[in-house]
Design a protein that fits this description.
The protein is an alpha+beta fold. The protein has helices at 18-28, 45-54; strands at residues 7-11, 35-40, 59-66, 69-75. It has one domain (7-76): TusA-like domain (Translation Initiation Factor IF3), CATH 3.30.110.40.
């Protein structure tokens, strides 16, 4: 089953740490339980997103590399909507 994001952030071409900072801003606009897809080309984002999710209430149900683009799916943590 493919993940259906509620929002898409295109952070391709942005250097570290901008993909993560933009993702944090995008997550702040989502409701708990909603899914954000992030596309980034910065190789350091792989580690950055892994660390961010490990230290936050958010979850990363999937991530993958397609060519030179990294895709991250981050589910906003907190209380889920009923």
């Amino acid at each position: 089953m493919a993940l259906q994001p509620d929002d898409l952030l295109d952070a391709r071409g942005l250097p570290c740490p901008l993909p993560l900072l933009k993702a944090k801003q995008a997550l702040s606009r989502l409701a708990p339980g909603q899914l954000l897809e992030v596309m980034a080309t910065d190789a350091g984002s792989w580690r950055d997103f892994e660390t961010f999710v490990a230290q936050s209430v958010h979850e990363m149900p999937a991530r993958e590399e397609r060519g030179d683009v990294y895709h991250y799916w981050i589910r906003k943590g907190g209380e889920s909507a009923p």
